[in-house]
Amino acid sequence: EKGSFRHFMEKEVHEQPESCQRTFSAYLDPVAQSVRADIKAGIDFSKITRLQIIACGTAYYAGSIARYAFEKIAGLPVDVEVASEFRYRTPAMTPGTLAIAVSQSGETADTLAALRWCKDQGLMTAAVVNVHTSTMAREADLLWPTHAGPEIGVASTKAFTAQLSALLSLVVCAAAQRGRITKAQEAHYVQTLLESPGLIAEALGMNADIVRMTYELSKARDVIYLGRGDMYPLALEGALKLKEISYIHAEGYAAGELKHGPIALIDEKTPVVVIAPDDDLFEKTASNVQEVAARGGRVIMITNVPGKVPTLSGDAAKSLKVIKAPDCDPFIAALVYSVPIQLLAYHTAVHKGTDVDQPRNLAKSVTVE
Ligand code: M6R
Q1: CA-to-CA separations, 363 to 154, 155, 256, 359, in angstroms, rounded
Q2: Angle at 355 between CA 353 and CA 358, to 5 degrees
Q3: In whole angstroms, what is the distance from residue 366 CA to residue 357 CA?
Q4: Residue pair 83/56 in contact by the 8 Å Cβ criterion
């Protein structure tokens, strides 16, 4: 039931501190400050040479975000591909590859077919799924469940952050097993992950600011999302969420790609959502904000360091809106910044009066091609 919420999506967005916490409990041991022994016993990442993540839609973006962390922290090469392409292109697989299907439902036709294909190639397979009795859960060699609970809204929210919670926990597992981090570093990463439900709760406090900002957004015909590093796939997820429920055309780009084409789209009618947490890439993203503003673009910047946002003058200054996000370690930024991204889409759709939980033409689970 929706309780006091207007839509299941709104309720599910607000459930994320608990759904992520539940997922972490299945992977992390808060007392030992390490990845749980049963998770470590189920896999040996030191024997794995490459990950092949396969998924569709939002699950694909969760996999794409995890890729950055698997490569950076665990030193493990990762390919991520949408299942509908992967399954039909005869990919060249190398021995020692672990194929990971990521899926809320565990029934998505393309992801399931891709998983079966990997199995047929003799690869070890794993499924990160929210429905623990699903076909993928049954057929994969390894089951890595997410604990989002039933997700009713067609637009995936809490399942997405539960996927991130599970995958980031597995990054720590892989880094430890591959000797990339010390015990003390493992404890630090575990602690950082366990802090994220509190920060997600804090991020929900951005709601009122976002309600105010989305009235204008709901009048737009096109919206651009920009991010760098793992905020790039989060920008893609933000654009997907907005498209799905508000029917506004939205595109996500790697911020560094702006000059290579998308900047031609910038005008005063096209809002640009910039996701810019305080990390090594902040200055670069901030300079993209200046480029957009200088061309009359209206920027909505989501950042935890509003003080570092470049000072703009004249009309550019007026068109810049900053949403203050909670401070967080870059390792969990994707989890924390998912919240404003979801709320932006949600409130824009509410302003437009669309059917948020059952958007036109979409099904919760795509079990046919
Ligand atoms: O059940 P799955 O996670 O496999 O579903 C994959 C996509 O169909 C799903 O994420 C879709 O993109 C959602 N509507 C996103 O909000």
Answers
A1: 7, 9, 34, 8
A2: 170
A3: 16
A4: yes
How many whole angstroms from 288 Cα to the centroid of ligand 1? 30
Catalytic residue among 119, 321, 324, 364: 364
Per-residue pLDDT 10s for the chain (369 aa) are: 899 999 999 999 999 999 999 999 999 999 999 999 999 999 999 999 999 999 999 999 999 999 999 999 999 999 999 999 999 999 999 999 999 999 999 999 999 999 999 999 999 999 999 999 999 999 999 999 999 999 998 999 999 999 999 999 999 999 999 999 999 999 999 999 999 999 999 999 999 999 998 998 999 999 999 999 999 999 999 999 999 999 999 999 999 999 999 999 999 999 999 999 998 899 998 888 888 888 888 999 999 987 787 777 777 777 788 999 999 999 999 999 999 999 999 999 999 999 888 988 898 888 888
E-assigned strand segments in 114-246: 124-129, 142-145, 222-227
pTM for this entry: 0.97
The SS3 assignment for 324 reads strand
- Separation between Cα atoms, residue 150 and residue 365, nearest integer Å: 13
Side chain identity at 36, as an amino acid letter? Answer: R
CB of 110 closer than 8 Å to CB of 100: no
CA neighbor of 184 nearest in space, from 21, 170, 77, 175: 175
Nearest CA to ligand 1 atom 8: 57
| Chain centroid to CA 188 | 22
ipTM over 0.95: yes
Distance 234 CA to ligand 1 centre (A): 15
Whether 166 and 63 have beta carbons less than 8 Å apart is answered as no
Which H or E run includes 81? strand 78-82
